[in-house]
Amino acid sequence: MESKQELYPRRSLKEISKTLMVIPLSDNTPMNDASDEGDSNTQGSRTRSSPGLQPSRPASNTGPSARKLLDGLGYLNHNADNLLGYLETVNTHLHDESDPRLDSPKSVLVTPELTALLKKIPERSVTDILIQHFFGEANWIYELVYLTTFLDRYNEWWSRPYQSVDNLEFAVLLLRLCSYSAQFLPSQNYTADTILGKSLCTIREQCDATAIALSQSPTMKANPPSILRVHELFFRACYLKNEGRMKESWDVLSEAIREAHELGLHVELPKGSGSLTSENEVEMGKRTYWNLFMSVILGRWPLIPERHCTVSLPNGVIGSQISDVNAPNVFCERRLQIELTKIAFDLLTSNHGKPSTDPVIIDKHIRRLQGEIIEKLPPAFKLHAAYEKWDDELPNLKRQRKMFRISVFATMCSLLRPVILQSLDQTRTWSPSDRKLVAEHRASLLDVTIEMLESVGRLHTLMGGKHNRFFLLSFFTLEPAVLLGCAL
Fold this sequence. Notes:
By secondary structure, the chain is mainly alpha-helical. It has helices spanning 13-21, 66-72, 83-90, 92-96, 112-118, 124-137, 147-159, 165-182, 200-215, 218-221, 227-242, 246-263, 279-293, 332-348, 359-372, 397-416, 424-427, 432-462, 471-487, and strands at residues 53-54, 107-108, 194-195, 198-199. The strands form two sheets. A two-stranded antiparallel sheet has the order 1-2. The chain has a two-stranded antiparallel ribbon with strand order 3-4. α8 (165-182) packs antiparallel against α9 and α16 runs parallel beside α19 (471-487). The N and C termini lie far apart (91 Å).
């Protein structure tokens, strides 16, 4: 019998993919809308033509590529779940083609406006002091900037600060670090409130204002996402937190996370792919992602849902200061914070974000925190009788231990806080076992708040005991004090 001819002959998936490669763009394709030329949301959709920028390579006359087409339609890079990720899997053409979002222009024409902004950057003798102070007194908090790589870029930048867009991005990061560093001055090692005759307040505000102006310039807005951009946004968010501008900090942190997504920091990329090529860059990229993840505070929802946390933890080898394999590395505290944050997200949102006053549930949460985090802490980070063998060799270990201790107690306070809502009339009808749990939880809340206040005081002493804008010191003095007053 003669087979019936198919009305729509079947095609292989690879043939369909190849067909998509040659679909021409119409004049109405949104990615090339001239009205969006300055919009950062359309970056990467075409070769930049912003004033002052020289394209890194000539524009092709063969029409836009499939990657550009899909990018213009809003597909997220490095995502295996969308069409772009599928095409990257089944067709090597997309692998051979560089991602325009990661291809920065090579040179920049210095305009009078740009020159005026760059002249506002403090002289090197000032930035040298601030950067030295940053690595000595501030970088230990997040361990996000690798000293060796940064100093290489720093020295190169001072030799030719105007040569490329990358250098302009580095200038913004430099200003962010300087303004952030100035928030930790005066200190025990630098007691003056001026640098070379200029007040710290003036320097801090000037660095912040210049960084904002540079980052919003047309040259910078036209630039594709980069790890430098993520870092400068992150430290802008940290600066705002220390200034008590939490809502603004949250908004900037959201922007940093969007940039990180565009770079593919949210997925485990094969070696040599994406924008991070060396092992050091991959390691620092992971540190960047996980620092962005640890953003829960003030009752706000996490900006990165945990189910998207597919990136492996950093190994912490970079920056290790001693050869003892049993010693904690510089990122050990951050890794512990990551595990604690995961548990906190899960426990604090288990009741649809509403606090549960059920003493049995509260007790279950506390026991889980103790079993999964507190009882498994490495010796150097034990809450009580911590192993202090490496404290002299690792000067920041004491401070990191105190900071992690505060985070554990803050999590316990959040879990125990609902006992304040339990009135005597409410508990009078409860069973004896439930009333006993309530009494234990109230006593635990009192103990934990006192422990947290003492830990904050000790951390402040370890940070020099001087005036300090570090947000953790003020925030975690207020919160336990209020809880303590309510629980008494």
